[in-house]
What does this fold into?
Amino acid sequence: MTSPLEQKKIKIAGPSVVTANRTWDGIVVYRTAAKGWSPDLSEAAIVRNSDEAKALLAEAVADDVGAVGAYIAPVQIGEDGRIEPGNLREQIRSTGVTIGQPAQV
Amino acid sequence: MYAYDEIDRTLVNERVSEFRDQVKRRLSGELTEDEFKMLRLQNGVYLQLHAYMFRVAIPYGTLASRQLRQLAHVARKYDRGYGHFTTRQNIQFNWIKLAELPDALADLAEVGIHAMQTSGNNMRNVTSDQWAGVAPGEIEDPRIWSELIRQHTTLHPEFSFLPRKFKIAITASDHDRAAIKIHDIGLRLIKNEKGETGFEVLVGGGLGRTPFIAKTIKHFVHGRDILSYIEAILRVYNQYGRRDNIYKARIKILVHELGIEKFSREVEEEWQHIRNSSLQIDDEVIEDIRARFSYPAYEKLPHMPDELRQAAADPDFEAWRKNSVAPHKVQGYSIVTISLKPVGGPPGDATAEQMDALADLADKYSFGEIRVGHEQNLALPHVAKRDLPALWKALDRLGLATPNVNLITDIIACPGLDYCSLANARSIPIAQELTRRFANHELANLIGRLHINISGCINACGHHHVGHIGILGVEKNGEEVYQITIGGRADENAALGNLIGPGVKFDEVADVVEDIVEAYLALRERPEELFMDTVKRLGVEPFKERVYATR
It folds into this structure.
């Protein structure tokens, strides 16, 4: 697997976070400013330029035991400061499937 | 049912122990994800959007009731209470924790189930007709040969690092229910003029971003030579397959680029080196495998029992029977397809409770046996006709008697963007909306046989290329857009569908399908003319005009 850090340039178009899946159980997690992982998007560290993104990603990738498949994902920041996923894929990762799960129906 | 021998049991148990150690080393940090990824993939473990996904093989689609109960147990104990039956006779669990996977594998191993080679660049689960062994007119049970190939290819070092994944499907009936023409190798079991068993061998089929229908490479390969012939194909593929480009690595690309004649010559040359080797199969080997399949002790039963005659007065029972019940090779018995496509439900999903209850019904009515088909439905293969009314009532109570098998709401769909890390667009909500639109059984029956296949990306796990109506979700400027094809089919006359025009938005897909169906109903010459026949007769244009006239 090519490390995301091997990408020559990391471009971001707006506020972003680093997300991954927690190693032991696979759930969606976000890199926090405290150099940890949280399943709560509101606790994610926000990066706003390429250098910040690259640094946060490097730190996240180094924690291979904590989480896997780290990458930069876009977010939107609401007027109240609330962090929202920046696209449908991230929305689904953040809030779950858009369908009822059979066992719950 | 096939009874595994000591070698199989040891192999499966050893694999569980190995994987337990690998997971332990991964969680301790001794193995990095880069080092671990191939090991987990060799055990059917993917990393998807929300969690790890665990794919379990159901070889040639045959399950014993105790195995289905154990799948229910895994769903309940380690997952979220349900599983998803795939288009290749596997079941997937969507929410498994890596730390608990060795325990789940160990529980499955207790009943002879494993996840070996359900992912990775190796020989995948060998699939077959879900009606194998019971279909009238079948030449012989294709699962015997599926099992032979399974044994030969499992953990075979030469096939463990292929350029790309490799899939084989086998059918032994004129009507192909195993979709052999969209497989890397498709085998059609036939007899030669001497009455000897052999195979028509097809190669280079597959869907994905570059779809091809398989071509016949040899019209007859004797059964005793089938392993050496398959091995010859794989050797040529191993040698020339494109390892430099993942998008060109499947055998279909090699067959296409070399041409079937040249590819065939290469295989023939290789085959001559290995044909008369230990790969030649003795009759004893086949008979030994055959003997390990147990077949029910069928009773002598009437063709039309009183119970069935009386139940025929109930229109709901009749609606279900007409679509779900197929003839059996033994008089007095039927094959019952169980739709996993309820109105508004995700195609192919079954809850742990449904699996447990189905296992009980299989014990009561089908000699403890269940089958899994590539259409993402299940089947009970040995149901006495007298038991059909009672079975129907029991299935209805479980929400498993939707009378839509082979109708427009019997949709094949991949997990799509709701689960899959590769997907660009959602599949399941499209399927759910379509099942609501066409929930009226009289309407669905009026439309007749019509298969809708939906994929959430170009990898085509929902087989959209071969849907009578195919729906492919893509992403365009941050939005889900769906391309619609018509005219595909996955049977013995397999064909790829043709695009009808520009893609449409998520909210428009069901409207477009309604337009296509309305066009068909208006255009067909008589009620018996199926959708596919109308498309074949008239082509894409009239459907295109109807769909885009107001868009």
